[in-house]
Amino acid sequence: MARDRDWQPAALTPDYKTTILRSPHAPLLHMPTALPEETGPVFGHDVLQPRDDDLILNYGAEGQAAIGPRILVHGVVADQNGRPLPDTLIEIWQANAAGRYRHHNDGYLAPLDPHFGGCGRVMTDTHGAYTFRTIQPGAYPWPNGPNAWRPAHIHLSILGPSFAQRLITQFYFEGDPLIPLCPIVNSLGNPAAVDRLTARLDMDRAVPMDMLAYRFDITLRGRHQTPFENRTAGL
Ligand SMILES: O=C(O)c1ccc(O)c(O)c1
Predict the structure, then answer these.
(1) Active site includes 130?
(2) What is the Cα–Cα distance from 160 to 146, expressed in whole angstroms?
(3) For the Intradiol ring-cleavage dioxygenases domain, which residue ranges apply (predicted)?
(4) 3-state class of 73 per DSSP?
(5) 93: helix, strand or coil
(6) Within 13 A of 165's CA, how many CA atoms are on the CB side?
(7) Contact 130, 45 (CB under 8 A)
(8) Is 150 in the pocket of ligand 1 (CB under 6 A)?
(9) pLDDT tens, 13-71?
(10) Which residues of 75-89 are buried (b: 16+ CB within 10 A; e: fewer)?
(11) 200 lines ligand 1 (CB under 6 A)
């Protein structure tokens, strides 16, 4: 099924300032893929380490949990026909509870957490389902305007069976008042597309006395497809 480019964020959205310089200024070229991109490399369960799906514990010293609200995130990855996709690699990266990334380019004054790395990986199971544990990220300021703040979000990369099959996106948390103020969110022209990037509180999967749960389903292509992050929408 062809990608619906009107559903995806436009590459040039001037309110999101970095798109002005980096969006394509010439018409896109169609580059058909060939066997090398369509057949590999194949990622298997052997790429995962035991705590890759547990961002609460996978970075700190043994037994030291990261600081912040503990959450479980889960969902199903499905294709354009709603068929669940097993053995799909999901990579995760995010800021810590204070809104700071463990990255040398992040100069925000909020502290790093010595026990939080902010990266993880998980494979979908035979039912296309995934689950990981993490810390709810904080909102953070960014240099898009005098007082611009990103809503709390978690980045995901979903890799299909070959390199050319990749969806990179970021999801938000239901009820966050910063969502409608964000120019990156608003580069999605359609409220239904914003809805597709909003994880829902899921009390059925919350773990009593431990953590809340959020559900975020991912659909590749089709009418209800999960939108890309703006910076990859041109791909
Ligand atoms: O592309 C950017 O400029 C940009 C800035 C801040 C973010 O949180 C982000 O996801 C992208």
Answers:
(1) no
(2) 39
(3) 73-101
(4) strand
(5) strand
(6) 21
(7) no
(8) yes
(9) 999 999 999 899 898 888 888 888 888 777 777 789 999 999 999 999 998 999 999 99
(10) bbbbbeeeeebebbb
(11) no
